[in-house]
Amino acid sequence: MRAEPQVLHVRSSAGLYGAEYVILGLIPALAEIGIASRLLCLDNQHLHEQELCAKAQASGLDAERVPCRGRFDISTVQSLRRAIAAQPDAVLHVHDYKSALHAWLARGNRRTPIVITSHGQFSFTPALQLYHRIELQLMRRFDRVCTVSADMQPMLERAGVPRANIRLIENGIDAARFTPSVPPLARADLGVAADAIVFGAAMRLTEQKNPLGLLAAFARVVPQLPRAVLVIAGTGPLREAMLARAGALGVASRVHLLGSVGEMPRYYTLLDVFVLPSLYEGLPLALLEAMAAECRIVATRVGQVGQVLDGLDAGLVAPGDDAALARAMLAAAERRAPALLRRRVVERYSTARMAERYAQVYAEVRNRHGRLAA
User: Fold this and answer.
1) Per-residue CA distances from 181 to 176, 269, 295 (Å)
2) Among 38, 161, 32, residue whose Cα is nearest residue 91
3) Which positions ≥6 away from 12 have C-beta within 8 Å?
4) Can you list the domains of the chain with their CATH numbers?
5) DSSP line for 243-276
6) Which of 52, 136, 174, 317 has a CB 3.0–4.6 Å from the CB of 324, allowing a cystine?
7) Which residues share a beta bridge with 66?
């Protein structure tokens, strides 16, 4: 029999990406310290499969789908209202604008505390800019706003979110899964030569992640490292553009787009150098996973990345500078991966540490609403 949830997590998901894996890591870590959770997954009308809910249930988590037929659905509000009424002492923890809006309306006049995690504020289309403005307005009314990178705080304060309500809680991973001792994916199975110098990235193939910039940098590397290859784990709308650009740059035979990789711990130990070329980020889990696996690291200085790598032997460059990225990749190929990378993750970026920080926030908002801390 499951324990009664003390936290109701609400997420509208477009697939299994960074924020989803944060939630999937957070819920069991909370359970380890005695905080039971339920995950309410708002349906995405554009997707037949609701991957977050399926993954959570397969992992043994208390998760259920909540029907949602569009950007706003009054029946979704009603479903959440029933869930809140069934667990009147639970904290609502929302993870995106859509969940925030529906949960805010579902709470109504109840005293249920609401915590929101801003996994990253990236809005470029008119629609996303509108949703971002709505989310900011709601954040002003929520009990706590948690960010994954410090550079989000000034924007939140300018939008009217009280500084006293903002908390920085950096993402965490299960470092026991990502270790340098995990046997790597077989190079022969991927068409990668045994003596190749393997550069790699794990990303959605979208403009934010800058895979085309990574290709441009890699094309600069190849003349100086004839054994270099590039492997990329992930899918996305720029896949065809990636294939075309690799051909145009004359590196198609050296670039391997692996799509979704089911054994990510083995993927990282395949790599000699992990590259994060993003134009903007919060705190990407892929970086932490690669560090835990003791990959040599090259990354753009975006979001919380600079703070994560501060004082460590890693290549940091400005976002969008392909030439600097290439130079950092070449330099990384010549150095050894220091064990301090993994130590940094174990000490500062574990799921246990992340769960402890969220537990403190839940206790704060419960006390604020006159409830006993969990």
Assistant:
1) 10, 8, 12
2) 38
3) 41, 42, 44, 68, 96, 98, 99
4) 7-172+350-368 (3.40.50.2000), 187-348 (3.40.50.2000)
5) HHHHHHTT-GGGEEEEES-S-HHHHHHH-SEEEE
6) 317
7) 42
Determine if residue 259 is left, alpha or beta; phi over 0 gives left, psi from -120 to 50 gives alpha, anything else beta.
left
pTM of the predicted protein model = 0.92
- Give residues with Cβ within 8 angstroms of 29, minimum separation 6: 172, 351, 352, 354, 355
- Alpha helices (runs of H) in the chain, residue ranges in sequence order: 18-32, 51-58, 74-86, 97-107, 126-139, 153-158, 187-190, 211-221, 239-248, 264-270, 285-292, 305-309, 322-334, 340-348, 351-368
Token pair recorded at residue 332: 């990384």
The amino acid present at 314, given as its one-letter code, is A
Is the predicted pLDDT of residue 38 greater than 60, yes or no? Answer: yes
Digit-coded pLDDT (tens) for 351-374: 999 999 999 999 999 987 765 333
